[in-house]
Amino acid sequence: MSTTAQADGRVESRVANYAGFFEKDSSKDSQAHMDNRLENYTDVINGYYDGATELYEYGWAQSFHFSRFYKGEGFLQSLARHEHYLAAQMNLKPGMKVLDVGCGIGGPAREIARFSDAHITGVNNNDFQIGRARKYTAKAGLSDTVNFVKGDFTKLSEQFGENTYDAVYAIEATVHAPTFESVYGQIFSVLKPGGVFGVYEWVMTDQYDASNPEHRRVAHGIEIGDGIPEMRTHADSRKALKAVGFQIEHEEDLADRNDYVPWYYPLEGDFSKAQTIGDYATVFRTTKFGMWTTSTMVWCLEKIGVVPKGTWAVGETMKQAASALVEGGQKKIRYQASHMSSVAQEPQILARKDLPINQAKWVTLKVIEWKDQDGIARRWEVAERTTRKGEIDAVAILAVLHSKKKDFKPSTIIIEQYRPPIEKYVVELPAGLVDAGESPETAAVRELEEETGYKADSIMETSPVLVSDPGMTNANMKFIALDVTLNEDAPDPKQKLEAGEHIVKRVVELDGLNDELKAYSKRGFAIDARLAHFAIGWDMARKLIDTKSSSN
After folding, report:
1. Which of 98, 186, 191, 264, CA to CA, is 20 to 30 A from 299?
2. Residues facing 481 on adjacent strands
């Protein structure tokens, strides 16, 4: 069996080896199998698409994705509308530089280019699909506006550079990545500030229960028949988008709309649901007789060497996927999420000017005349807040998050916020000013909910009055620890930010906080001293405890 690429880019050995990455019976498909697929995800994906691509073209279209249907709407028309909807939601415009991640054979890229007049680059790690994408694009006369390159979507910044694209989209493609973070993080890095990422994602719904054998059987059927190392949940997708820095502007479950016919109808083989005469051919291919006909044809073509060995076996897994997708749709445990996420516009410092004291709103500059310990008269310049309403200026908040289900270790919430004085984004603790008549504890509870959406259960600790930078200012604060119980079944709490506030929140395990801050620093963020001191202290305490335990 050849391990050398054919002239069209397909490799016979990886097609033949594809099915070996899975156990057909979901109950026998172990964590070791899944770990092997994730580690070798490029072989899984390429083996699958070397065998499946022509079958998709024959049985589906040049756009390898699902779509919703309106009454009387043809199959191909629905696919195009689905692509137009994404482009419209992303506000793609003529001349924009756009990246299509996991572009297949370029069907969506060509359609979106026609619709938006944007310049689109498709990236894909499969030589066979790239070759076909270029051929079809040239035939369509779109080579000047649509091009395709081979690349790994977990290494986009290495190939394209950071801050390169105005927009990025992915249509049912990033589900193939070993983790959502690995691909979303790369997409974030290649987007320009203010750019937008639109994605149709394959995920399981909140009703999916991985411990339920029937649910797991459905998910496994989708995995084995669609070249997916591991199906993940909607919560996993949202968490990953936020973890890498995206702000989610819009999301919806397109599979949960009350449509005239369901999104999965072309897989059912039910002629009664065909919306146009032309759709009967598509429906026929998923009838029992239609699938037998295709299977027999592919078996014969493989025997005479027209298609690579293993193509028939890949086709058989696709039949398993079709059944699982229909069942998942009917049971509402398979979900097609539509996410629209953005990279915040990069702030710009326009000028630094001297400010007359009488125009200052938040701080004032004073001179202190004093005598030191030797009786020598001295002067000291000091910045003072003008906003102090009582004895305390502000509070810094350490929220200690505990899992209601004990699914994760104790964690905390950190925020990212641009600070003009240092012209950088700063990673810091939630914090805020104390209002008139308000206790520091009440201010801490209020500020935590406003900046992060999380509600405190109780006050764990209140520090004495602390000074922040006594050589520069008389500003002071209290450090307040709050206990927060996190219910994983509840939706992510929404921030209550004021106009002009741009705060990104992140939940980080306390044991990994110091390492996270080091990673932030390498990415160019500034680290707030109070947060850094706490993280270093937590790390040192753990090391001392470990040293003491090992010595005993």
Report:
1. 264
2. 398, 461
Q: What φ, ψ does residue 373 adopt, rounded to 5°?
A: -65, -20
Asked if the model's pLDDT at residue 346 lies above 80, the reply is no
Q: What percentage of the chain has pLDDT greater than the value 70?
A: 96
- Residue 530 burial (10 A CB sphere; 0-12, 13-18, 19+): middle
**Backbone region of residue 476 per phi and psi (left: phi > 0; alpha: psi in -120 to 50; beta: other values):** beta
99/187 Cα distance (integer angstroms): 9
Measured CA to CA in angstroms, residue 268 lies from 145, 258, 317, 428 at distances of 37, 18, 16, 52
Q: Is 190 exposed, middle or buried (0-12, 13-18, 19+ CB in 10 A)?
A: buried
Cα gap 477→463, rounded to integer Å: 9
pLDDT at 380: 95
DSSP string, 418-463: EEGGGTEEEEE--EEEPPTT--HHHHHHHHHHHHH----SEEEEE-
Largest CA distance in the chain: 103
Distance CA 468, CA 477 (A): 7
Three-class SS state of 287: coil
User: 336 forms bridges with which residues in the sheet?
Assistant: 202
Structure token pair of residue 435: 């209002």
Question: By C-alpha distance, which of 319, 312, 265 is closest to 289?
Answer: 319
Q: What are phi and psi of 496, to 5 degrees?
A: -120, 65
Locate the DSSP E strands across 125-164: 146-150
For residues 525 and 416, the answer to whether their CB atoms sit within 8 Å is: yes
The alpha carbon dihedral of 131, 132, 137, 139 has a sign of: positive
| CB-side neighbour CA atoms (13 Å) of 407 | 7
| Per-residue confidence band for 404, with pLDDT thresholds at 50, 70 and 90 | confident
Using DSSP's 3-state secondary structure scheme, residue 345 falls into coil
Reply yes or no on whether the pLDDT at 2 is more than 80: no
- Residues in CB range of 151: below 8 A, 6 or more apart: 123, 124, 125, 159, 160
DSSP letters spanning 8-75: TS-BHHHHHHGGGGS-SSGGG--HHHHHHHHHTHHHHHHHHHHHHHHHHHHHT-SS-S---B-TT--H
User: What CA dihedral angle connects 483, 485, 486 and 488, to 10 degrees?
Assistant: 160
**CA–CA separation, 187 and 547 (whole Å):** 41
How many Cβ atoms sit within 10 Å of the Cβ of residue 132? 21
Q: Check if the beta carbon of residue 11 is closer than 8 Å to that of residue 3.
A: yes
Per the CB < 8 A criterion, the answer to whether 9 and 126 are in contact is yes
* Helix H or strand E encompassing 327: helix 311-331
Q: Is the entire prediction scored with pTM above 0.85? A: no
Q: Rounded to whole angstroms, how far apart are CA atoms 382 and 100? A: 54
